[in-house]
Amino acid sequence: MSKEALSKAMAELEEEQVIALVKELLGSGVAPLEIVKALQEGMVEVGNRFERGDYFLSELVMAGEIMKGAMDILEPHLAGESTEHKGTIVIGTVRGDIHDLGKNIVVMLLKGAGYKVVDLGVDVPKEKFVEAVKETGAPLVGMSVLLTSCQGALKETIEALRAEGLNPKVIIGGNYVNETVKKHVGADYFATTASDGLKAAAEVFGA
Amino acid sequence: MVENKMKSFVPEAGTCIPWKIKKEEFGVLAGNEEIVKSSWEMLDALAYAFIWFWVQR
Amino acid sequence: MSDKEKLFQERFKRYTVALECGKPDKVPVVFPLGEWVVKYTNTTLQEAYYNVDKSNEIIGDVIRDLDFDVMFGAINLWWPPMFDGMDCKLYKFPGIYFEENSGFQYVEEEYMKAEDYDEFIANPTQWLATKYLPRICGEFAEPGSYRATVALIKGAAAFAMHNDKLTKTGEKWAKEYGIVSATTGMTKAPFDTLGDALRGTKGILLDLRRRPDKVLAACEAIVPHNIAYAMITAAGDTSLPCFAPLHKGAYPFLSLEHWQKYYWPSWKAVIEGLWALGKRTFFFAEGDWTPYLEKIAELPDKSIVFCIDLTDAKKAKKVLGGRFCLYGGVPTTLLTYGTPEEVKDCVKRAIDELGGDGGFVLAAGGVVMSDAKRENIVAMIEAAREYGVY
Questions:
Q1: Does the pLDDT value for residue C105 go beyond 70?
Q2: Helical residues (DSSP H) of chain A, grouped into ranges
Q3: Does A have 3 or more CB contacts under 8 Å with B?
Q4: Chain C contacts of A65, Cβ < 8 Å?
Q5: Residue C233: its chain B contacts at CB < 8 A?
């Protein structure tokens, strides 16, 4: 059984097959990091299919669940091994909003694409964003929001970053964001789908 | 035990304890059945709406 | 008949003629009620949620001098004391969980587990009463206990009290201001009933692959309930459409194949079931429904009012126009970030593009929350009267 088969099974969302292959590859002595890489390749294909309109949110959620199952098996074997990554991205749902479906999907695809993602969770105060950017020096920050009534928090958070002299690029994401909202809150990019987020990351990191 | 006398049933949509079930338990009504029935059904519908309210958000 | 009653009749006719795809004297215009009205007062959002009389006062002050036909929305869709009394986990309101000027949030969990499907399908109402309520309410942790009994009495009393208040408020708006309510009653797509408050978004989306037959069987079991619930909550009214907030049928939750298989048949059955009773559905299509318009067009003529939020308006007009009333035209983000001038232009465009031959109601396409600006809403209503005379 090959790593290619694992990537393919991941892309095809064949849950049982993915789990079986992960166990098999581990058993046959393949390096855990190589297995993670194969899974990530599958995840990139999932993202591509979403971008092409072949996959929908339902498929992305399933992909996340399969990846989680696979990582549960792999994690004990990964202790101490450090993965290379393309760059660090800080992400969170802004203060007042607890929606995380969109954010989690973007996190999953960004990780799949090889970024290190610092996920601050939901209802994140601006201070936490500031702190995380200071700590990580992340060149890109993602702010997620669904409720239009919480869009004010985008502006406040971006202003808080700038006030601290922090100048990472900021991408805002959510169903009701657009060019107007982007300008109003002072963000650099906006995303209404997960693939918009990936494109912005590729631009920022030149990947 | 009171429970033993109660029949098990699946209430149809819009009802919790349909009148026809309760009427059997009441047996023969001495007065005007229609008045009892319509009031029973009105409150039963309210209970039904209350139970479903929590998932119809 | 008083002047206000005459006004009510006039507006009622304007709205219902449009719902029937006809051409009224003017394009009916809808006032989007929401938390934004509270922002312009000294009252906190918490107070407005808890105190219905207070929020009605605030609404009265805002609408008194405005000329619109229909009111849609609410400040307090849910009355927090009812949830507090049962320690219900479904929502967090300002007061206990959030500071006084925050909005409310829905807390999504898998309140129904995968292994509950069979029991739910066999007897949904009983399952909800005996299994679901104890799970979502802290006070029902021990059903039959003193605490649970007291909480149930409080919950039921609050439910009846609040419903009664809503009914009286509607009558007051009609009588004193001549305002028509956009909808009567409430229902949902069975897939949303199952996916929103029972299995949760993630739960139901995974179920489509792990136990698709259960999803189908549960949706089928829910169909008659969503018809009955609509008619009970509408108190039998069929003159106005039934509110149906739709969620997971929006693009891009489901592929067209999944949508056609899992979302649409049971939802279509509810709409057709209601239509057979003479009840129209207020198809509140939050988000983008563009890819599914052709399927929606299969419904019986006039059986729905289609609300345009992020759906492609021109395509909606092309596919549904003439056979179904269209509702919307003003994006919710414009009401927050736009200027009155921009809103006015948007209203003019919307009436030109969507309203030319009737069957159109001018409104905000989605839910208007606390972020909207009063001057923009006033501009929307005034522009509707300026440009909306047929």
A1: yes
A2: 3-11, 15-27, 32-52, 57-78, 101-112, 126-136, 152-163, 179-185, 194-205
A3: no
A4: 202, 206
A5: 49
* Cβ-defined contact of A148 to C336 (cutoff 8 Å): yes
Comparing C-alpha atoms, which of C94, C364, C201, C93 is closest to residue A99? C201
Q: How many CB atoms lie under 10 A from the CB of residue A163?
A: 10
Indicate yes or no: CB of C232 within 8 angstroms of CB of B49: yes
In this complex, do C371 and A58 lie within 8 Å of one another by their Cβ atoms? no
**Same-domain check for residues A66 and A93:** no
Compute, in degrees rounded to 10, the torsion defined by CA atoms C174, C304, C286, C265. Answer: 140
Nearest-5° Cα angle at A103, A92 to C207: 145
Q: Which CATH number fits the domain that encloses residue C275? A: 3.20.20.210
SS3 assignment, position C157? helix
* Distance, CA of A68 to chain centre: 13
A147–C202: do the CB atoms touch at under 8 Å?
no
Overall domain count for chain B: 1
| Structure-block tokens of residue C333 | 């983000």
Q: Could you tell me which chain A residue has the CA closest to the CA of C92?
A: A98
Q: What are the pLDDT digits (tens) for C211-270?
A: 999 999 999 999 999 999 999 999 999 999 999 999 999 999 999 999 999 999 999 999
Shortest Cα distance, chain B CAs vs residue C233, angstroms: 7
C107 touches chain A (CB under 8 A): yes
Chain A residues in contact with C292 by the CB 8 A cut-off are none
| CATH at A104 | 3.40.50.280
CB contact C338 to A (< 8 Å) = yes
Residue C87: inside a domain, yes or no?
Answer: no
pLDDT digits (tens, 9 = 90+) for B19-51: 999 999 999 999 999 999 999 999 999 999 999
Cis peptide before C212 (omega within 30 of 0): no
Across the interface, do C337 and A56 touch by the CB < 8 Å criterion? no
Domain that holds residue C227: 3-76+177-387
pLDDT by residue (tens digit) across A8-64? 999 999 999 999 999 999 999 999 889 988 998 999 899 899 889 899 989 999 999
Residue type, A9: A
Answer yes or no: do C337 and A57 touch at CB < 8 A.
no
**Residue C134, both tokens:** 């104890």
Q: CA–CA separation, A44 vs A36, rounded Å?
A: 12
Query: A–C: how many Cβ contacts below 8 A?
Result: 69
Q: How far apart are CA C200 and CA C111, in angstroms?
A: 7
